[in-house]
Amino acid sequence: MDSTSWGAKVVARSRVFKPVGLGPFPVALILHGCGGKTPFLETYAEVAVKAGYAAVVLDSFKPRGMSTLDGKLFVCTLMTLHGAKRAADIFGTLAWLKTQDWARADQVFLAGWSHGAWTIMDAYALGTSAPSATGLPDADAVALRQQVKGALLVYPYAAYPSMTSRRGWGPGAPPVWSVLGQKDGVVGWRFPKKALDRLTADGVRVDLKLYADATHAFDDDKANDPRAIYRPDLFQEVQDYFGAALRAVASKPGMFA
């Protein structure tokens, strides 16, 4: 299957939000964690719409015939669908956006939470190995760099087999906004910080919010992991952070190149 066809299949099982009007709009792609697409991500989609973006909350499980339970049993335990493989959803959706009149396919912002952030990171770290890793023969690392203008990484998984700390992202990577919690008992904060430090050392512009008392999934009011403590105050802060990043990229798309 080529990238555009896979992107169409993924978006058909996902949810698209659009501002009022015909567009074309810049687009925020929102990638869920290993537990599947959860309602709190739609709040972030609404933030994107208020910033003038269309938003696509991607569902990476339904197009693969997977359930939320499958995600918790097999994806969260690293048995299947690693970030590099799931990066097919990014390459596919970017290709599909080029076929949509309402979308500014050259003005895309990627936002991922946990496993979704790992997916974004691996998409860049793959480089020319993207076709073999994703299973999409036309997965285009160059297009990824041309179309995407910024990325938000919220408590990303960055330990092995995540590749960013080892490979970096190579040239042409977009600016990164990131959120880590020092009480994160799921992915920790040291491995993500190491990956972000690698990006900084490679010349990528990285902004970091490091919350001393935040757990994993602190912004998900329906998280069922006992290690997650919901923090509505920080949830609002990250919404504001996301909105500011989106507006910064949209107002000055070449500023962070």
TrEMBL record:
GO molecular function, one term: hydrolase activity
Keywords, sorted A to Z: Hydrolase
PANTHER family in the cross-refs: DIENELACTONE HYDROLASE DOMAIN-CONTAINING PROTEIN-RELATED, POLYKETIDE TRANSFERASE AF380
Name under which the protein is recorded: Dienelactone hydrolase family protein
Source organism (scientific name): Caulobacter hibisci
